[in-house]
Amino acid sequence: MELLVKRFNDLSNDELYAILKARVDVFVVEQNCPYEEIDDMDQKALHLYLKDNDRIKAYLRIIDCDDHAKIGRVIATDRRKGLGTEIMNEAIRVCKQDLKKDRIALEAQTYVQEFYEKLGFRQVSEPFYLDGIEHIKMIRE
Predict the structure, then answer these.
(1) Facing residues of 135 across strands?
(2) Which of 6, 38, 78, 119 stands the most exposed, by the fewest C-beta atoms within 10 Å?
(3) Under a CB-based contact definition with an 8 Å cutoff, are residues 135 and 107 in contact?
(4) pLDDT for 58-80, tens place per residue?
(5) Of 31, 29, 9, whose CA–CA distance to 21 is shortest?
């Protein structure tokens, strides 16, 4: 398994296609949730993904904000194999070491709150609906 960390302009057409396909497969098709996947944030983001045999196994993006980093679009295509934890640990490392951000934010679907809490995130908002799915804001400092 190979970890890749790339800016938008460094992604090949095939890599970008694979990323968007993985995200749509999970968030739009699997979760039956039509939403604005192409949101003009990818160009500003760092894209982290685990690849095996030219297939994305886990993915997320990091957006460098003024006083914090924001993680989003977290997916693992092969579930219950520790890939979500692995990609999140890499993201935390990138935020701290490369982006020099100790404060990391994310908006989590409430059913995975415990997963993020195990990684040091804490809930900082009441539940709210985003694209018809209940979410909470979480922070790791």
Answers:
(1) 109, 128
(2) 38
(3) yes
(4) 999 999 999 999 999 999 988 88
(5) 29
DSSP type of residue 97: I
Degrees, nearest 5: CA angle 141-45-78: 80
Question: Rounded to an integer, what distance in angstroms lies between the CA atom of residue 64 and that of residue 46?
Answer: 8
Structural domain includes residue 78: yes
Q: Is the dihedral of CA 116, 119, 67, 95 positive or negative?
A: negative
CB-based burial label for 56 (10 Å; 0-12, 13-18, 19+): buried
Can you give the CATH number for the domain in which 68 is found?
A: 3.40.630.30
Whole-prediction pTM:
0.92
Q: Which domain holds residue 58?
A: 2-104
Over the Cα atoms of the chain, what is R_g?
A: 14
At residue 100, what is the residue type? Answer: K
pLDDT of residue 80: 85
Count of structural domains, the chain:
1
In-domain check, residue 95:
yes
